[in-house]
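Predict the assembly for these two chains.
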Amino acid sequence: MSAVTQGQPKLYESQKLARWYFIVAIALFGAQLLFGLIAAYQQINPRFLLDVAPFMTNRTLHVNAMVVWLLVGMVGGVYWFLPKETGREVVGITLAKIVWWVLVAGVAVLVGIYLFVQYGPGKMTTLWFIMEGREYLEAPRWVDIAIVVWVAVFLFNVIATVLASRRITGILTVLIFDLVALGALYTAGMHYQLNLTMDQFLWWWVVHLWVEATWEVLVGVLMAWSLMYLLGVSRRLVETWLFIEVALVFGTGILGLGHHYFWIGTPEYWLGLGGFFSSLEPLPLVAMVVHSVYDAGAHRLGTVNKPAMFWLIAQAFGNFIGAGVWGFMQTLPQINMFSHGTQLAAAHGHLAFFGAYVATVLLLVYIAFQNLRVPVQVPLDSRLWKWAAALLILGIVGISAAFTLSGFTQTLIERAVGGSTWAAFIQGYTHPWYANTLGWRYFFGWVMLTGYVLLVIDLASIGKKRTA
Amino acid sequence: MAKIIRVEVYVDGAPEPLQVLTQEPFKVNLDPAAFEEGDHFLRVTVEYDNGDYHEYLYTFTVAHRNEEFVGYLNRAPVRAPVDVLLIDPMERAETAQPPKPFIHGVLPVLLFLLVAGIATWFAFRGDQPAALAVAQVEDLTGAYTGSAAQPAQPQKAASVDGKTIYQTNCASCHGPEGQGMGDVFPALAGNPNLADTEMVLDVVVNGRPGTAMPAWGGQLSDEEIAAVINYVLSSWGNDFGSVTPEDVARFRR
């Protein structure tokens, strides 16, 4: 392919905004890896940076950066596809841009607060301005409000654009109602409760219903658009699968929430409800695998964008293995009684978030970056993306394997054999099966970081030096 | 309704367009015989009269069999307006379903308020049943004993016994026989560092930052700390002297 014209392609304003979403998402991905790597090293040497940024600070940053960058990446994907879907510019795009830059500034301030303030006295001012202290949702209340405003503006963009385009599709209907749940459920994490059980009860609405229901449906929407773009799959086919997946995700995921209510002081019936519905939760993930692999096979894997196609298939399998299999391993109450709160949960978290959401966002990023510079390279391909993908996947598999092994040791030695005593806790933590995995985690963290660097180089070079 | 005014078709990355269409019908007809056998791709640019501009990527495959030239489009982009087979989404919009203002506009807002409202209700009223349950349990206790339940009195240690304090608070890490555990928890039996009783007093009262050793000054009295230190200094073959409660008091900050 010879270079014809250089310069900028004509993009919708919404797609230009999406580009910023993706750039910030990829930058935060790097921050997440960095803080994760420091946290992994602090497991080996707890004195490292102890007085500057202890483990808990790094873990907070690691987890919060992940939540933000994945959500930003997926919202960016919607801003990318929405004008194509409706055939017009997104309504209220100026407002969306203002809110976006306010949000970026807010995230920067928040990182500064996490790093340099870290904690405050037990007063309401701390809750509002420094940190709420709830695991994974540490963000202070002003950030919570900013996030709800952000999602509300986003929802307004989508609804107004659909109404203005005078055209509705099945995918858009699913998107609108999913965004309603996405915005509304986040408000549940903003309430301060004296009763710890009540606090956890609402906290899981955000942590579980967000991630295991509304995010999965959002991924389904983005996968539908991506399959149509990458393979030219017919709209009727992707919409049929999307409806099946939505029915399964909400059908199993809402009451599957029960697997978080086993041991927090909620009534006993949650054991049965949670055990039953959460063991059905892998079903929609199987549907996604069948869907994407079937479509890819039917279209002979030929595509306009090879890295995006790879991440699409990786998403299907990663979501099923990480979220489905690793989740099912510990979701039955009989097993969870011994395994909850061990590093098995961390193994599941790492593999599931990578498989389900990191792969999705990387897929969207590659689709967008293919179209950012003229001439558009078709099919998009390079040697570097393969190395980046291989190292990222090798890294996450290694990290998850190390977590699985140490979680198994905790479950067996600390919980099942030792009966959860302090001495058994020490025995578990000093056991070689646990202690040796700390080094492996750290090593595979470096592998992932290497993959990330290659990914950034590859993305930066798309449409520039390559001549395919 | 925006109308297409110009369509350009580029094949396999060629610099010059293969076809340029400036009037109806905007349909790209390609002759398979004009292409090599194998996979090809198309870049189609579309300009509308309202200034909109789009680019679409297609791939298609050509096969030559028995002098018959077969081409089929195997990949078409999302809602491509121009194609061998597809028609413009802008034009198709007339036949597509329009959104219903209530279902796609008002209902989402109502649902948003409903879910957020339920979360708020739970936040402010959700602990009421739990509070009621506690009250019921207290009533039952009263019914069985004939009087309101007495809160358990915290038990005070009758006498200060260094060995008991050690087994309760220290043995889980340092071992029942002072043997320690792994590299993390140092052994106390036969540890020559214990000869420095000032250091021992400081570590027990104030803890050792950056390690698992907690500060006991807030939890144990001077007498208890002195007793447990004396137990450690004189047990398991240790003979490192003794300390007094007054020594302990000196190290409290």
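The two ends of chain A are 6 Å apart (CA to CA). The mean pLDDT of chain A is 89.
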